[in-house]
Amino acid sequence: MTAEKPKNLPGPNIKAAWDDIKQGNFDEALRRVGNISKDSRDYTESRLILARVAWLQGFTEAAMVILDESAANNPDSSRILTDIAVLQLNDEQTDKALGTLDKAAENSSLLPEAEIARYAALRRLGKKEQASEALKSLYDKVLTGS
Question: What separation in angstroms does the CA of 70 have from each of 25, 84, 120, 129, 141?
Fold first, then answer.
């Protein structure tokens, strides 16, 4: 009898693909996720990987198309929304990025990438006090685990 894999854990190709990205092995990451079908539990994660590879190789418009499609299919995914917000920040769409980060925050109690992006957006807008509060909030959440 085989133990059933928990549905929320990514498959081995997903974990390996993220490791490949960290090491700059973009072709290998793409190979690992290229054939993941839409009905797979790893499909959304594979789209995040495709978008990240496009983004890191300078194809930000392609990354945004992939992320927008993913957000349309998963409107409550804080991870997708956070990546969209970071691309918006990189494109000087700071106000829009803050709105996207607000939506991401509604769906996740702690996503450090979102909190860091919020800090950066607030600093860009000259809202230094709010930025400091955002950073303090992240620090407190990490320390308390809530």
Answer: 23, 10, 24, 34, 28
* CB-CB contact of 117 with 135 (8 Å): no
What whole-number distance in Å separates Cα of residue 61 and Cα of residue 91? 10
Quote the CA–CA distance of 121 and 139 in Å, as a whole number: 17
Sign of the torsion angle spanned by Cα atoms 109, 121, 128, 119: positive
pLDDT digits (tens, 9 = 90+) for 125-139: 999 999 888 888 888
**In this predicted model, what pLDDT tens digit does every residue of 17-46 receive, in sequence order?**
999 999 999 999 999 998 888 878 888 899
CA distance 70 to 17: 18
Q: Which residue has the tokens 């991401």?
A: 104
CATH number for the domain running over 11-74? 1.25.40
Ordered alpha helix ranges (H), the chain: 12-22, 26-33, 43-56, 60-73, 78-90, 94-107, 112-124, 128-144
